[in-house]
Write a structure and sequence with these properties.
Length: 636
Amino acid sequence: MAVRINSFEQYKEDYKLSVENPEAFWAGVADTFTWKKKWDKVLEWNFTEPKVEWFKGAQLNITENCLDRHLATKGDAIAYVWESNDVNEANRTLTYKQLHEEVCKFANVLKSNGVKKGDRVCMYMPMVPELAIACLAAARIGAIHSVVFAGFSAQALCDRISDAKVEVVITSDGNFRGNKDIPVKAIVDEAIKNLDFVRKSIVFKRTGGPVIMKEGRDIWWSDEMATASPVCEATPVDAEDPLFILYTSGSTGQPKGVVHTTAGYMVSTYYTFLNAFQYNEGELYFCTADIGWITGHSYMMYGPLLAGASSVMFEGVPTYPDAGRFWQIVEKLKVNIFYTAPTAIRALEAFGLEFVNKYDLSSLRALGSVGEPINVEAWNWYNDYIGKGNCPIVDTYWQTETGAFMITPIAGITPTKPAYATLPLPGVQLAIMDAEGKEILGNDVEGNLCVKFPWPSMIRTTYGDHERCRQTYFSAYPGYYFTGDGCKRDEDGYYRITGRVDDVINVSGHRMGTAEVENAINEHKNVIESAIVGYPHDIKGQGIYAYVICDHVPENADVLRKEILDIVTKIIGPIAKPDKIQIVPGLPKTRSGKIMRRILRKVAEGDVSSLGDTSTLLDPSVVDAIVEGALVPIKQ
Ligand code: WT7
């Protein structure tokens, strides 16, 4: 079996093999890696506990596969070209040889600061190569990285550091984002001020802004690296040893730490990267995601490095210094594969074609989309004006929990269809479920999306709370992994994701639990209760609509709104700020106290004509008051 899929026919054959004999299929992929010791058994699993073990008995180190094994053949090839936020600052390039050396050095820094195998290390950093270096260095010594997106607030960071009992935090002085200089170190200081178990904070100097270094705890990255040895044996770990924790939102108020383990994650990220993008040696790949999200983990770090690919890492934002920045980078560096989120596509589309047409985009061969359903209009714009009709668009459907692509076209090999993620990759066995919890067979059907057989990069547990993992993903449909997404399979068997069916909203590709935002809003002293729903938003995909019940009528509703936005920013971060806040006298609740979000969603959408049956509500009159209030334009 060739690992790389070269034709639609081969896709079909490989898919068939992966279903008929999953162990042989995945062993075929796994055989291409460097192992310290090969596995005793390819797969053991049950979805009841759940317990899933891939390549049990094997020993390896993922960084040997990302770095060491490329040195002989492509040591001088580029691993990363780093593009600054500042359009005038020179690029930094890191070859595989240089990246290997930096990783080994920083691995020694971690060791000399007492980090051992199995310890958790938190990274809260801007998009600089040192973030990837820090993660790989942790993996080099068998430590577990937990990257927290640098847009989260001090409190959100504190929660995540506490949950994972992190003793060492890697950060930077500041973060250049557009024309802002965000004081990253100060946010970390605030987050860990009461956490005595955080022993060390290693600070990379990026902006040169003022920082306070706490004696005995805070040390500079450059001081440590100056004396670190460039030689560091890779620590062997077991196939199922955790590689990283990444926190993500669900239907409850508390984010959960999704745990990914080593061997399976390695095999899946490599296989999916290589195939979906059809990466060719020498090509330059540009993924715009932040390493703080799963896309950055799987497709900025591990997938591309495992494939020996060359990647662009961009520090800044798509609209700085203007809305042509992505395309300026594509032209300047001659990018071949470009991978971004629908929200960015829609935002840039709104700025107009003058920012696109200034640049030569002829180097592009394939485009990717991720994070939320891409609407037909955005798909067409991306296809026509960025790809010039010549670049297949891979609409990659997956999740933090799946670790790697599940449903996606294979660039230039399998067909694309606007707004469709199309077909499952080999190894991915999907099921669409009906309201009774039974699998719906055949085509031209719609329901909830599940997976019925394990794949190597699937979630193993939620950190420190396995029951939560079982409850969230394996209890709705016994024997199946439930994605939380609704989905349609059309008459040709192609899949289109229709969006979340749980209390999770997707705002600009960022996943958010409604309960999380509600909990934050409820911290306001004048708020008794709140309810959050998503509503269609032209750029963000979904906007956040907040209904709040106040204890007393606020003197000035605008002041209240501003205070609510400040609280949400403080507790979660600016990405969770509601777009609209409506003060309501009550919420539509059933007699058992459940909020009928269906009604709130309709009102938020502006569709008040068909609110459906409200007779089961405790107080149906509340609906009239909400509708009335919604008709008054809400000022932000
Ligand atoms: C949720 C996962 C996967 C990396 C980024 C987000 C939605 C993701 C697509 C797509 C339609 C998509 C789903 C999924 N989603 N990709 N191509 N088409 N929906 O990761 O934060 O774990 O969110 O994002 O709703 O469940 P995440």
